[in-house]
Amino acid sequence: MLLAALAAGIALLIGGASKRSRGAAPAHTVAAVAPPRHARRPARSAAPAQAPAVAAGSLPQTHAFPSATSAPFMARMAALWAGVVSGASAPALPAFFPRQAYVQLKAIPSAGSDWSGQLVAEYALDIAAAHALLGAAAAGAQLVAVNVPTSYAHWVEPGVCYNGIGYWEVPNARVVYRQGGACARSASPR
């Protein structure tokens, strides 16, 4: 369930795309997750100015293979985990399929209504189910890494599953987390 949503998010990997072309996916990527902000050392100097972020889904789809190690990807996975730990879908929405990208991708009537009326509701159920799997000690669970087996990456052609444009899909992604001193891996949805 949750992993299907994670796989969907990883399938698109909106943002942070590399220059690889279609069919040239790397063998395997493990995205390590940065420690929580409170565990990091404070910066010694002011951060350099950054360009404004581009809204997810606002750019046209390309064949570029996206990165599963970029800072934006890791931030999305941290947001996903925050939702799982809390049991609330709102903190995890940055990791979910962006509405604008879904509307761009799907060749169905009222794709925006489908996104808000069905997909987000099902995502909330997945987040709640993953939270329940963590049990009473969910608040202490820590995300360690996200394994993205890019060797499984494949391009989904337009016309498949009511899609108007193609996209990258990477099945079998897994989250690795630490709970109660032990590491655990999520089960794969496929």
Please write out the topology.
Layout: H1 2-12, E1 29-32, H2 71-86, H3 99-105, H4 111-134, E2 142-148, E3 154-156, E4 167-169, E5 174-179, E6 182-185
Antiparallel strand pairs: 1-2, 2-5, 3-4, 5-6
Helix pairs in contact: 2-4, 3-4
Write up this protein:
- With 190 residues, this protein is of the alpha+beta class.
- It has one domain.
- The chain is 31% helix and 14% strand.
- It has helices at residues 2-12, 71-86, 99-105, 111-134; strands spanning 29-32, 142-148, 154-156, 167-169, 174-179, 182-185.
- A 4-stranded antiparallel sheet has the order 1-2-5-6, with helices on one face. Strands 3-4 form a two-stranded antiparallel sheet.
- The protein is globular, with a radius of gyration of 17 Å.
Write the H/E string, N to C: HEHHHEEEEE
Shape: globular
Order of strands, widest sheet: 1-2-5-6
The average pLDDT value, as a whole number, equals 77
The tally of strands reads 6
The largest β sheet comes out as:
4 strands, antiparallel
* Helix run count: 4
Q: Structural class, from helix and strand content? A: alpha+beta
Strand content: 5-15%
Key features of this structure:
190 residues; 6 strands; alpha+beta; four-stranded antiparallel β-sheet; two-stranded antiparallel sheet; 4 helices
Summary of the model, kept short:
The protein has 190 residues and is an alpha+beta fold.
